[in-house]
Amino acid sequence: MAKASSLSDGTALRDEVVPRRVRQFGSARDGLREWRLQRLTAIGLIPLSIYFAASILSLATSDRKTAADWLSSPVPALLVILVVLAGITHALIGVRSVILDYVHTRARLLAAELLFRAVAVILAGAGVLAVLKLFLGR
Amino acid sequence: MERPLSPFMFPTWYRFQITSALSILHRLTGIALAVGSILLVWWLITVAAGGELFTTTHAFLISPIGLVLLFGWSVAFFYHLCNGVRHLAWDAGYGFEIRSAARSGYAVLAMTVLLTAMTWLCVFLI
Q1: What is the CATH number of the domain that holds B51?
Q2: Is B50's CB within 8 Å of A10's CB?
Q3: What per-residue confidence (pLDDT) applies to A2?
Q4: Owning domain of residue B76
Q5: How distant, in Å, are the alpha carbons of A19, A63, A138, B114, B122 from that of B125?
Q6: Mean per-residue pLDDT for B94-102?
Q7: Chain A residues with CB inside 8 Å of B6's CB?
Q8: Which pLDDT score, from 0 to 100, does residue A120 have?
């Protein structure tokens, strides 16, 4: 804890002291965890989203059967589920940070928070369910 | 005098800078992609459901409006991807100098144009 009290100008990768939570005047108690999850999903989404975009591209002109066959094979099914989960998690954190910047009334903030969380959960659930249906029903 | 608040500072009170312009673009493309994720999940649902649902959606996606939307999302996707990598480099502590931040910004724009062009060439040539 020797260096912990001074604010370091380095960042986590170079630092010897890795911050575990927001200290001192940090306003959000769990801000660091969310910050990390945003970066973690970002890193995961680099290969995942490129894979998904490339696959969609080759499916662009194809019919439903080709798309369904692709989604019902194990590796694409798993990767698409991961794209959906990581993508929507990343999107929710991003949208939340925008809301926090522009919505200032407490009631509106709560309403927006509930709305966007609900949309995210429904989208993630529906996406996973659609892929699972194709995968299990092949 | 009423002081302007954050989102309205940009056009009139701040000088144009590549770094701040790209920063706001990162947010805008992020929001666009979040909206696009609804279509993405919808497409998965229609593939699983099949029938008329898929046919209608497919027809919409290859209609002029659908193609414009898809083109917009592809631009947003590649921009957010490239600029996201730039952000991750900053998070790791690299490229903070003003010159390199501006240079990486232009590189992001160039990569976005290149990747988008390559993508749509593939769509129309293959």
Answers
A1: 1.20.1300.10
A2: no
A3: 44
A4: 20-125
A5: 50, 18, 32, 16, 5
A6: 91
A7: 101
A8: 98
